[in-house]
Amino acid sequence: MTQIDGQVSDRGLRIFAAAGSIGSLTGAAKRLGLGQPAVSHAITRLERALDTTLLERSRTGVLTTPAGQALLSQIVSAFAQIDEAVASTRAARVDVDTVSISVSTSLASWWLLPRLPEFKRTHPEISLRLVTADADTDVDIGEIDLWIPLGLVERSDLDAVPLCQERLIPVATPELASSLDASSPATLLHGPLLHLEEHYAPRFDWYRWFALHDVETPEHLAGDRSNDYSLVLHAALGGQGIALGWGHIVSDLIDDGRLVALAPAVTTETPFVVLSSNRRPLSPGAAAFRRWLVDQLGR
Prior knowledge:
D-Maltodextrin-Binding Protein, domain 2; single chain; globular; Arc Repressor Mutant, subunit A; three-stranded parallel sheet
């Protein structure tokens, strides 16, 4: 929809809602997939159409004026209702056998994809749409049926079903393992550790693993780092170091002999879960896929 002088468009209001909620034109541009100049221009046109200032620009971002805050408080809830109605209508029209699921890249690559042929053999009528997301803040549950987050997500609009316990296993290639002293947790402190730097709600890292085993660590643990768990696993498989492997992801690699466990698994109190919206019922296909996930990961 285009906006001409004196008229207010849905697009202009949505851009303002994003900027006002985030407090940043750059942040709104990133969320909406627009250029920052386009966001600024759209808000300027909206302010001209309404003949009032909605946002005050500053070096650190933008602040809503009293008029802007009054408008923002009404349109955010209105857009939420509109988006929910659209999502419900889309879900009613889309083939119920099409299931969308958001998972991390590592879970999709190392666990899910190798097992999907088994699911398809028993459910050939269900089509799957896989969406990978490694930052749990980026997932739009209105567009997704099921979501397996990396970190902890606490939202009143979501239902959580446990999938499996979080089990951590120090792993390395057989060749590297043979050169290491893995006689105790403390000896691994001097090994080539591989670290995962998560950009959202970190779960369990080497610092916590050593603390659990009463091993004192320096303030900074040496070793290579990556913010992508798949890259951490590739580095481990390349013999570059010791990774903390999530049991459900590295179990196949251990069974195949590509990695070996250097210590017993540690089970945390933070299970992995599959999330879904509690504002709309799951389709038959999504419910079947969730049951399969629970069965497979719960083994």
